[in-house]
Amino acid sequence: MCAHASAIPQNPQVEGLMGLLQKREFVGLQLTGCDLSKATLPKSDGTVLLADPEPGLKLTNVVLGRGTQNYTCADSTENSTPVAQGAQAILYDVSCIAANHPSLLHELPDVLVQLQSSVEYYMATIFQRLSKEKVIVGHHLFVPDFSTAVFDFRITPDVKRYFSGRKDASVSATAYASKGPPGEEFGAVDWLRLKAGDNSVDLKLAYRVHTAGGKPPGNCKGRNKNFGINYAAEYWFYN
Fold first, then answer.
1. Which stretches of the chain drop beneath a pLDDT of 70?
2. Could you tell me the sign of the dihedral formed by the alpha carbons of 107, 96, 87, 116, in that order?
3. Is 122 helix (H, G, I), strand (E, B) or coil?
4. Burial class (CB in 10 A: 0-12, 13-18, 19+), 129
5. CA-CA distance, 191 to 212, in Å (whole number)?
6. Whole-prediction pTM value?
7. The dihedral of CA 188, 111, 234, 199: what is its sign?
8. Are the C-beta atoms of 85 and 229 separated by less than 8 Å?
9. I want to staple 109 with a disulfide (CB 3.0 to 4.6 A). Which of 27, 75, 104, 212 is the partner?
């Protein structure tokens, strides 16, 4: 993959993102290992605030999640409504962008949700242009009954962080958030506050903010039994 990193795929969304980054002169930007003490957590959709982190908790890392919100249908008619079945996503470390260039960070989910095919390849290519650092840092999924969100950062032996928790609170996505890519413009999923369960390691709290896409259609007409809707979001983690 890295051997082809200098060749940006011929994809309008990728080209648009690279244009945004180049215009802002962020090529070569450090992505990981920055001081997060001054990073400011977005908590509001403009009307309602998510609660602050508990006293004593510190921000440990900020990642972008890119994947699908998953749903199931009883049948493929308009009489059935999609039922949420968790999500799956690749996690990309963008802590330094959160610390130093928050306005850029908050634009990325709306752009990244437009990448519908070969997402991991495109993402790795984009970030390879930004930095030589390892930025794929984990995976997001749900277990065992689609009510427990898992963020597993243990993809390298020296990392122990693992978050397993449930929704503590939610607010609607911002009115200006991307509703999703063409054909999936059903709306942006809610912002969330997630509290860690007992089996979490080195993480106590998480927020999902600046969401783009991910909401299902209003009914199941023409849908498969199981399907995913593309989404992207920022995730902020505390310990």
1. 1-31, 45-46, 116-133
2. positive
3. helix
4. middle
5. 10
6. 0.86
7. positive
8. no
9. 212
